[in-house]
Structure formats: C-alpha cells, structure tokens
Amino acid sequence: MSTATDSKNSALLPIDEARAENLVLALPKGRILKAIRPILKAAGMEPEDGFFDEHDRRLRFSTKADGVDVIRVRSFDVATFIAFGAAHMGVAGSDVLMEFDHPEIYAPVDLGVGGCRMVVASTITGAEQDDPRNWSHVRVATKYPNVTARHFAARGVQAECIKLNGAMELAPGLGLCRRIVDLVETGSTLKANGLVEVEEIAQVSSRFVVNRAAWKTRPDDIGGWVQKIRDAVDAA
Fold first, then answer.
1. How distant is the alpha carbon of residue 124 from its chain centre?
2. Chain segment 185-216, per-residue pLDDT in tens
3. Given phi > 0 = left and psi -120 to 50 = alpha, else beta, which region is 195?
4. Residues 93 and 32: beta-carbon distance below 8 Å
5. What is the Cα Rg of the chain in Å?
6. CA dihedral defined by 160, 163, 167, 171, rounded to 10 degrees?
7. Coil, strand or helix: which one is 36?
8. Torsion sign across C-alpha atoms 145, 147, 151, 156
9. What percent of the chain is helix, strand and coil (3-state, nearest 5)?
C-alpha cells in the first residue's frame, strides 16, 4: 500500500527519472523545422512553443502528446541519437541516413518536405574539359565522405574525400580540390560561385525515422505514432 510519504517522494523524483518512460523524439535544428511543424501538429505531437524559440536554451521539451518529449539537436546527431537508442523517433534527411547508414535506423515514412538533390559539381572550366567516364582518381570536398566514396567506388573510381562541414563551394576556387559533393535545390549557389553540376548522386527528402529495437519493445506506442505521421502526410 502506498503512503503519503511515498507519494511525496515520487513527486520529488529528478526530472530525468520521472520522464524515463517517455518516448523521445529527436528533431533537427534549422529550416526543416518550419516545414515539418504542420505534420507534427496534425499528428498530435507538436512540441511546446519554447521549442521553436531560438532564445530558449533548453534542449529537451514536452509536446502536446502525453508521454512524448522532444529534443533539439543538429541534423547529423539525430541519426546518432536514434541509432544508439537515446531517442526512439526522429526526423532526418535521407542524405544523413545515407551517410550514417546504421542498421538500427528504420525510415518508414517519407515526409515529402526538404526536397533537394545530392550532386557532384565542378568548376565550369573543369566540367568542360573533364569527362567523368575517364575518371580513375578524384579529390572531392564534401560533408558526405561515406556516400561520396561509395558513389565513386561503384564506378571503379578512387575518391580522396576532404571532409568539410560547410562552404563547400569555396574549395575549388581556393585550390583545395576540383570537385565537390553537396546538396542543391535550385543550383543558384553553385552558379554564384562559378560551379556547375556534373552528375546527380541521389534525390533527398526528410524522413520520419525510428529505432528498430525500440519499435520491437514498444510496438503499439511507436507503431501508433508512425501511422499518425503517415496519415498526416497523406492528408497534407
């Protein structure tokens, strides 16, 4: 039988312990949040208002759904939190999933937002003088060394990948390399920096992802949210 003392002690549990059974949803910082907010709202798991306030320094927030918390992390870190079970569900770009390529991450729903392309680009002069069919070794600046290496290896080309986290378009002009692999939407940034698209690697969009082990241990909870997200996307 519980006592008043038990109830008092329960009420004083540390927040991490008190919320230990909550599902954790990992969402990326940046522009994609605006695009996925209507989907989350329609599914009934919209984060509290503070989540969207850039001045709020908390990293873990509640949502409109009982038993679901949300964390705000960098886009590549979503995959890490999901893969190792620190988060149960999340939103990640297919570019991140391709680069991370972890077996514990399952992406059951294409959210249909954040569409862009991953491409190989080169200087205009280089593209005019260089035939990709003759490549045997390339040096490439990219945020996606694993995807890049796999892409070129499939064609028998050895890729020397230089890892950059941004400003990829600067690399050819400063002599770091002749080619880059990056995401493009309209190609205007490439053009403004004297680059042209050489070939496309993949179409990219945002996906709703889950941890496979968590889905097996909590199939009703996580499966229910997957269906609600799918329904919200279909209704959009």
1. 31
2. 999 999 999 999 999 999 999 999 999 999 99
3. beta
4. yes
5. 22
6. -30
7. helix
8. positive
9. 40, 30, 30
| Residue pLDDT, tens place only, 28-64 | 988 898 999 999 999 999 999 999 988 998 999 999 9
Label residue 57 exposed, middle or buried (CB < 10 Å: 0-12, 13-18, 19+).
Answer: exposed
The tokens describing 109, both together, are 């729903």
Beta strands in 29-152 (DSSP E): 60-62, 68-73, 89-93, 105-110, 116-123, 137-142
Instruction: Give all domains of the chain, ordered by start, each with its CATH number.
Output: 4-114+205-235 (3.40.190.10), 116-203 (3.40.190.10)
Tokens describing residue 181? 């692999």
Which run of H or E residues covers position 232? helix 219-235
Measured CA to CA, the distance from residue 148 to residue 158 in angstroms comes to 10
* Residues in a beta bridge with 119: 182, 200
> Could you tell me the pTM of the whole model?
0.86
Cα–Cα distance, 71 to 91 (Å, whole number): 11
Nearest Cα to 142, choosing from 126, 123, 159? 159
